[in-house]
Design brief:
This protein has 8 helices and 7 strands; from the N terminus they run H-H-H-H-E-E-E-H-E-E-H-E-E-H-H. By secondary structure, the chain is α+β, with helices and mostly antiparallel strands. Strands 1, 2, 3, 4, 5, 6 and 7 form a 7-stranded antiparallel β-sheet that branches. Helix 2 (35-41) packs across helix 4 (62-82) and helix 4 (62-82) packs parallel to helix 7 (230-237). It binds zinc ion (ZN). The site of zinc ion has 7 residues, from helix 5. Zinc ion is lined by residues 116, 130-131, 137, 139-140, 146.
Length: 264
């Protein structure tokens, strides 16, 4: 399997640095789901024809909602086991022509921070959350710049079932998402029935991202899943990621990094 790296701005090994820190990506941490639970989420002509207009609380939807519920429990268990958020919670943006299809759950990022990238570190994690210049961030003190990161809650529609993940958007992807959030047609990002296809392509030393809107009635072109109904969305909204996924370092840790970078 091709291990993709979500790098824009020319940071070639970005999200994997976090995995290395946590002891490595130890294979498939997502619990395997039974074929039957998977099947219940797949689009089938029979199921599609049986679909009724979405209305909260109507009977006969246990199947789809319990599939989401299982996904949730699995996701929670997954996090509990690893002791921290692992990279599988973060959406990986593939290189075109591959793409991911997502639904945004909120109209804004749930967290925004400034990140330092320390090229001098050859082994292990290279990205660090800036403490802020007001707090005499050790990495700012040695003159390292920062880039803005925006985190978004999304439902990943690219697999066998809808899965909650978060997007960690650097400046390029962040700009593309922000543009969509301001355009008359696509705002708010989380309007019902709206999905986005996201991919990236190498451009010079960096990645250029594209974020294209897809309406519910054309979702089948880019996803094997049924559109999300109100109940699906509600269960995802109960378990959104928050800024606890942002790995902050202590001043001491950042000072050590700064010393190492200066030596390098
Ligand atoms: Zn800083």
């Amino acid at each position: 399997m091709e291990v993709d790296t979500d790098t824009d701005e020319g940071y070639q090994d970005e999200p994997n640095d976090e995995a290395e820190q946590g002891g490595g990506r130890s294979g498939d941490r997502v619990p395997r789901r039974s074929q039957s639970s998977t099947a219940s989420r797949r689009r089938s002509p029979e199921r599609a024809s049986k679909r009724e207009p979405a209305k909260p609380g109507r009977a006969g939807r246990e199947r789809s909602s319990s599939a989401v519920g299982r996904g949730w429990e699995a996701s929670r268990a997954n996090r509990a086991k690893s002791g921290s958020f692992n990279n599988l919670d973060q959406l990986t943006i593939p290189i075109a022509p591959k793409s991911v299809t997502v639904a945004f759950l909120e109209e804004d990022p749930f967290a925004t921070y400034n990140q330092h990238w320390v090229n001098e570190i050859t082994d292990g994690r290279k990205s660090f959350v800036c403490l802020g210049e007001d707090d005499d961030c050790p990495l700012c003190v040695i003159g390292l710049g920062t880039r803005n990161m925006d985190l978004y809650n999304v439902v990943d529609m690219s697999g066998d079932e809808p899965v909650l993940r978060y997007i960690e958007a650097g400046p390029d992807l962040g700009d593309r998402i922000y543009e969509r959030s301001q355009e008359e047609l696509t705002k708010p990002l989380n309007q019902p029935g709206q999905y986005f296809v996201i991919k990236k392509a190498k451009k010079n030393r960096a990645f250029a991202h594209t974020v294209d809107a897809v309406n519910e009635d054309r979702l089948e072109k880019v996803s094997d899943l049924d559109p999300l109904d109100d109940e699906d969305v509600d269960s995802f909204l109960e378990s959104l990621f928050d800024d606890s996924v942002v790995k902050r370092s202590t001043r001491r840790e950042l000072q050590d990094v700064a010393d190492e970078a200066d030596d390098g």
